[in-house]
Amino acid sequence: MVDSLSYSLQKRILIVLFLLVPIVLLVLFSLYPAGYLVYLSFMSWDGFSPEKTWAGIANYKEVFQTKEIWQAFGHNFVYLIWGLFQNALGLFFALLLNSRLKGRNAYRVMLFMPYIMNGVAVAYMFNYVFNSEYGSFNTLLRGMGLDSLAISWFGSPKAVNHVLGFITLWKFMGLNMVIYLAALQSVPSEIVEAAKIDGASRFQTSMRVVLPNITQVIELNLFLTIIGTLEMFDLPFILTGGGPLGASDTFLTKTIATAFKFNNFGLASAMSITLIALVVVVLGVQRLATRRWSD
């Protein structure tokens, strides 16, 4: 039977058989859940009853009319600011440790170590650091005579998101540094040496020669940073639970609470679809900005 088939047909059958399993997995665990999420966003469902009531676009109207949801989304931009600073700091250390600095390998390991730590462990560690009574940071401030600055960091609506943003910077900056470092080491040494021979300073070489050659990596890191900041969940969920009074709620923590605390899966699904659309819009703006910069 197989011998009677032409070589091209056997090749096509073999390709289809190899692709069958990943396609089935893609449909079951990606396309179907995404389609079902869109379906639920038009329904009114508590997550328990077997029947779902058609709600149309009412869930989406509620998303755009609820002030608390967009206040929570505004908190994500605090993380975005810290994320941009995180990228700049990672690029700075990558440029520094790409030179012939003594002990640079040890510094690379130390800066990358926070990233490999468990996120829950990091959250509990900084819970002790920023504890208002016995935290090491407030103890340091009091030891320096700055008692007025020793506040409840997780209890202050103005400070809480910046504290959480600082924790994300501490944890993920090393990853950004390693990615940038790998990109810097792929830049041809000949063009760097040529720039130095032409009299370019180290700063001019970095800005005019090195950075233009790693724009795609910078764009990738910004892409990952934006997605991470707009989908921030673990730190505010573990450390503050969205408090105080919703001051550290993010769009995703609000979505999870809507689904599993208030049993409104239709509204939560609409919030999820809205978040996906917002991510696409923000990434489109970022893509346009970085493309113009690279040009």
UniProtKB/TrEMBL annotation:
Keywords assigned: Cell membrane, Membrane, Transmembrane, Transmembrane helix, Transport
Task: Please give the InterPro entries that the UniProt record associates with this protein.
Answer: ABC_transporter_permease (IPR051393), MetI-like (IPR000515), MetI-like_sf (IPR035906)
Provide one Gene Ontology biological process annotation.
Answer: transmembrane transport
Domain ABC transmembrane type-1 intervals = 72-286
Q: Where in the cell is it found?
A: Cell membrane
Member of which family? Belongs to the binding-protein-dependent transport system permease family.
Q: What is its main location?
A: membrane
- One GO cellular component term noted in the UniProt record for this chain: plasma membrane
Question: Which residue stretches, if any, does this entry annotate as coiled coil?
Answer: none
Instruction: Please report the record's description of how this protein sits within the membrane.
Output: Multi-pass membrane protein
The reply to whether Transmembrane helix figures as a keyword in the UniProt entry is yes
What is the name attached to this protein's record? Sugar ABC transporter permease
Tell me where the transmembrane regions lie. Answer: 12-39, 77-97, 109-130, 163-183, 222-245, 265-285
Pfam families found in the cross-reference section: BPD_transp_1
